[in-house]
UniProtKB/TrEMBL annotation:
InterPro entries: P-loop_NTPase, TPST-like. The keyword DNA damage does not apply. It comes from Pedococcus ginsenosidimutans. The keyword Protease does not apply. Coiled coil: none annotated. Keywords: Transferase. This is Sulfotransferase. PANTHER family: PROTEIN-TYROSINE SULFOTRANSFERASE, PROTEIN-TYROSINE SULFOTRANSFERASE 2. It comes from the Bacteria. Transmembrane segments: none annotated.
């Protein structure tokens, strides 16, 4: 294993080029997970549909609700198998219906449940998208309001810590950290590295992901168009939002982030 930047592990992928292992894209909300979802969904072999959140609720079966549900007499392994069969079956059928051979799921909240995800799908590959938490806070404010921005100062380091702890327990070929900043400034090189991790062939068409058909709500296109207009660009991927906190994060939020997330920012190399 080698380190190319803080928190990033690289190695030759041991995943075969014909892999059907499920892919889970996780990360704190407003970190670029939706953009990566659409990029992956543009690959000829990979289907990455709408966010599910389904498995977050299912975790309670073998967690907080287990004492009660164990009375049915089925083992945890049997519950897990049936959940995986159902969820994996839906995803596989959805992928096949779109002419794809492999499915991916983008659900940011699964960052907090990686141990459960891997219990369900032992061969799953996890892609953890990481973005500077201060830029995440700015995005929260723009999308959800100021109180959401305030809460992100606690949520962001918690998501990072949980996902990295879960990733540290996995083999290197099952956990990959992808920086938002690298994705928007050097898209092709970053995606080539991701494809190598996933054991998939690089496809240039992924760079033009907005020309592909995706199952997204109508509001996505409205919001995406509005964001591009605000940035003065027509490009689907742009780097102008990197470091936006320097101009758009107020003094109170800057101080709050220093109090709640200073260690995480330092560990990730965000100065």
């Amino acid at each position: 294993m080698s380190i190319t930047e803080p928190g990033t592990r690289t190695s030759e992928s041991s995943v075969p080029r014909t892999s059907t292992a499920p892919i889970f894209v996780v990360g704190c909300q407003r970190s670029g997970t939706t953009m990566l979802r659409l990029i992956l969904d543009s690959h000829s072999r990979i289907s990455c549909g709408p966010e599910t959140r389904f498995l977050e609720d299912m975790e309670r079966i073998v967690g907080s609700d287990w004492k009660r549900l164990s009375q049915y007499g089925f083992s945890q392994e049997e519950w897990l198998r049936r959940i995986a069969d159902f969820f994996g079956g839906i995803q596989s059928d959805y992928a096949a219906g779109r002419g794809k051979q492999r499915w991916a799921d983008k659900s940011p909240r699964y960052a907090m449940k990686l141990d459960f995800i891997v219990r369900l799908f032992p061969d799953a590959q996890i892609v953890h998208v990481i973005r500077d938490g201060r830029d995440v806070a700015v995005s929260h404010r723009k999308r959800f309001g100021y109180w959401s921005c305030v809460k992100s100062s606690v949520k962001w380091p918690r998501y990072i810590a949980e996902a990295r702890a879960g990733g540290a327990a996995l083999p290197v070929h099952q956990y990959h950290e992808l920086r938002y900043e690298a994705l928007v400034t050097d898209q092709e090189a970053t995606l080539r590295g991701l494809m190598d991790f996933l054991g998939e062939e690089w496809e240039p068409g992924m760079l033009d992901f907005e020309s592909h058909a995706h199952d997204v709500p109508a509001r996505y296109h409205v919001q995406a168009t509005s964001r591009r207009a605000g940035e003065g660009t027509e490009a689907a991927v742009y780097s102008s939002r990197v470091g936006t906190y320097r101009k758009e994060l107020d003094p109170f939020m800057r101080l709050l982030f220093q109090l709640t997330a200073r260690r995480t920012l330092r560990e990730l190399g965000y100065q």
